[in-house]
Amino acid sequence: MKKVTALLLALCIHALCLQTAIAQEEQAALVPLPSLDDFTRGEDGWSFGLGLGVEYESAYEGSDEFGFEVQPAGAVQWRTGDDIFFFAGEALGWRGLRADTWLFEAIVGFEEGREESDSDDGRLDGLGTTEEGLEFALQARRAFSADWRYWLDGRLVAGENGNLGIFGVGRRFGEQIDGSGSELSVVAVFHDSELANTEFGIDAAQAAASGLEQTKLSGGFRSIGVHYNYRHYINDNWRIFGEALYERYSSDIADSPIARNNYEAEIGLGFLYVF
């Protein structure tokens, strides 16, 4: 995938902007946060969005290789009052708003595995494959006010390869209540020893096959991260979205031979058509 793809995508989006008028009534989203897809237009019943995104990201956790990846975007949603049930890719979930300032979410999905071929430079040779596994996530967000200008976030992710905890604080920009605009969050990430060694550990067999030093990690603090989300509604159907992520690893992770960088980063841009 080459940079020209991202440029062509940007040109197509710009052309759509020129062809359509932006004037429209705001439709209240369940929660007015750009990081949460909401295709319901404030109404109960079924809704559906389909699109495409282009990401420039690390090849794997801790990689110093970057590349472009094209991914489908969108979801099928069903809303009833302050609850939305959704199916998005390999994830099935529910989110619900309570007392205007509490958002809860539960998701069942799959965690992507890692393959030796993920590194074009052969950095993962001899480490084998980390299998894709079932994953269950619970999230709670607490806003300081009903406009969701500032909020606290807590997430627990339990998977076949280990467990993860994420705790953060965020701020929403703009006055829209339809889910467009932008937001910025800062998060601290913790993992258990099983997940730490799945992603960054090297056992005796892997050390012998790869030539890398045997490494065993304990659980605890993993990283500090910054996440930015942007969403713009061109008209009632077309939407564009973007995001940027930077995650700085702890010294224990950065010292692993698998981590060629002490950070992970990605940036993405895409579009959606809401039916």
Task: Give a short synopsis of this structure.
The chain has helices spanning 3-19, 193-200, 204-210, 251-254; strands spanning 45-58, 66-80, 83-88, 91-98, 102-111, 133-143, 150-159, 162-173, 181-191, 220-233, 238-249, 263-274.
List descriptors.
twelve-stranded antiparallel β-barrel; 275 residues; disordered N terminus
Describe the structure.
A twelve-stranded antiparallel β-barrel has the order 1-2-3-4-5-6-7-8-9-10-11-12. The chain has four helices and twelve strands, in the order αβββββββββααββαβ. A hairpin with a 2-residue loop joins strand 2 and strand 3 (83-88). By secondary structure, the protein is mainly beta. The chain is elongated and about 60 Å long.
Secondary-structure map with pairings?
Blueprint: H1 3-19, E1 45-58, E2 66-80, E3 83-88, E4 91-98, E5 102-111, E6 133-143, E7 150-159, E8 162-173, E9 181-191, H2 193-200, H3 204-210, E10 220-233, E11 238-249, H4 251-254, E12 263-274
Antiparallel strand pairs: 1-2, 1-12, 2-3, 3-4, 4-5, 5-6, 6-7, 7-8, 8-9, 9-10, 10-11, 11-12
Low-confidence stretches: 1-25
* Helical content band: 10-25%
Mean pLDDT: 90
Cα-atom Rg, whole angstroms? 20 Å
| Tally of separate helices | 4
Query: Strands across the major sheet, in which order?
Result: 1-2-3-4-5-6-7-8-9-10-11-12
Provide the succession of SSEs. Answer: HEEEEEEEEEHHEEHE
**Hey, roughly how much beta strand do the residues contain?**
over 45%
DSSP strand count? 12
